Amino acid sequence: DSFDILGDGVKELLVGRDDGMIEIYTFEGTDEPVLRHDYALSESIASIQGGCVGKDGYDEILAATYSGWLTGLTTEPVHREGGSGEELKLSQEMQNKISSLRNELEHLQMKVLQEREKYQQSSQSSTAVSSVPAFSVNEKFTLNKDDASYSLILEVQTAIDNVLVQSDVPIDLLDVDKNSAVVSFSSCDSE
User: Fold this and answer.
1) The domain containing residue 48 runs over which residues?
2) Total domains, the chain
3) CA-atom Rg of the chain in angstroms
4) 35 lies in a domain?
5) What is the phi/psi pair of residue 104, to 5°?
């Protein structure tokens, strides 16, 4: 997207990448874009948009991720400083918003408990049928020309417990910064 997120009267280029990076580029009197800010998310970005969403006067970047999460980056200051010895008082609007969010959270927690109880009851009945849930997998297997390696990226809308990679030829697994996996090697039976 292109949006004036910096408030300087010139639109910046907002980029959301498959590796989860959000980048803001400016064109400061040159033909080449200059990276001004970046932020890393833990999953690929499906869509990005700039605009005023949450509070008047504070622009935001909204990014939708592969699993459906919506993440916002705002220009609103997070911390407010009070004078010496002053207590920071929340406006009535902010107190109402916090109260509303707490009520919504409690309601959602009650719904989750009710659904868990329903599931427990149905799974213990004699007519219960178990099935594996269907989910889509976002996979990429790309060649990195710099070090002649391949990157395998797997994303699903649920936690990944195990990934099995089987190969007919010997392979070396390289560790990368974004990797949180524990690698275990085992030899295959040739049969």
Assistant:
1) 2-74
2) 1
3) 24
4) yes
5) -65, -40
Say if residues 25 and 13 touch (Cβ distance below 8 Å). yes
Tell me: the pLDDT tens digits for 62-108?
999 887 888 888 888 776 555 555 555 677 888 888 889 999 999 99
**Matching residue, tokens 């997120």:** 5
How far is it, in rounded angstroms, from Cα 66 to Cα 51? 21
**56 part of a folded domain:** yes
Residue 15, both tokens:
């980029």
Amino acid at 51: G
In a domain, 31, yes or no: yes
Contact 155, 44 (CB under 8 A): yes
Q: Are 55 and 76 in contact (CB under 8 A)?
A: yes
Q: Which helix (H) or strand (E) segment is 65 a member of?
A: strand 58-65
**156 in a structural domain:** no
For the chain, the distance separating the N- and C-terminal CA atoms, rounded to the nearest angstrom, is 53
